[in-house]
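ok here's the first one, seq then struct tokens
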Amino acid sequence: MPVRPASLLLAVAATVLLCSSAAAQSAPPAAEQPPVTAPEQPTAAPDPAPVPTVELDQTVVNVQTTMPLPRHKSYFKITHRFARDMRRGDIGDFFEDGLGTDQGSIIGLEYRFGLTSNLQLGIHRTILGKTINVFGKWDALRQPDGKPLGLSVGVSLEGQNNLHLDPQPGLSAMFSRMQGTWLALYANPTYVHNAHTPTLQAAHGDHTHGGTEPDADEEIPGEDSTDTVFIGLGLRARIRETVSIVAEVSPRLAGYRPDRAAWNVGIEKLTRGHVLQLNFGNSFDTTPGMVARGGSPHDVYMGFNLSRKF
């Protein structure tokens, strides 16, 4: 009996469907795969808050500190001393003179560079006598390294008329002691050679050099000496996170000792890398030789320092 093509096709199709259904029922179910999740990105730790420090600057006002200057970093400072004696006249006269700014000022510029992490060189120039002071400082001990105190050693050479007149070499040591993050104490024993020479001028234009002309009959301690030994004593006390008060005095111990010891007090503010200091003292002194010659017995001058590290 002949097979019809249509019947044959239907039989083949039925066979294929039955085989597919049996295979589907006998095959084990596929294991469920866990969902793929993106790896967690580590979260960056927040920057630690800066540790408060009381050692903000390379100087108190004039007294040197043991603050290091990092390798290949720079430091720049402007010193400004108004020439009007604040004790002259009354408060009305002081305001009429533009808070003392009408009488001119003594301006100094200073730059330091860190050769290494514990050795720095610098230069300071003031218009008072066109004095230039070149200096170096080596940090021998640091209290943060576990030492009981900080110690730096400094050498300097200054002279008037852009170092062409009265060269005055000096040698000093800087000791420091930090009390937590709120108080720093400093002592700078200093020796200055040629602090008193026949050609040193006690005046520059209309500006007295941190003192008054002595009476002819008044005996000046150490008048026959050309050298001076003094010790700069200073402190910096932090009263708020970015505000400190400063004070210093530099009594002469031996040698030429005219007038009174130079002193300064002030308040300063740290802001975005700058230290702005308003100070009051009895002289225009900004170099070791000037400090050796002392300050006025009675005058008080206003000034400021502005410094930055970069």
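and now the second one, same deal
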Amino acid sequence: MVKANEDIRKEIRGAGLTLWQVAHAWKNINEVSMVRRLRFELSAREKAEIRQVIKRLTKGSKNTC
């Protein structure tokens, strides 16, 4: 059985980020709220927003190292 939003989950893990980091940067929500949102398939717009957050956070982490 495939989890909803598996693509987003993999992208977050692949970027070396945690759910709480993405949740906070995306909508200023906590990790539990993010997990609840990911239980059901997100809209294409929401996925695009999260992908932008992932890019922004990974760029920021590269600049601080």
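notes on #2: Residues 17 and 54 are 8 Å apart (CA to CA). The chain has one domain: 6-64.
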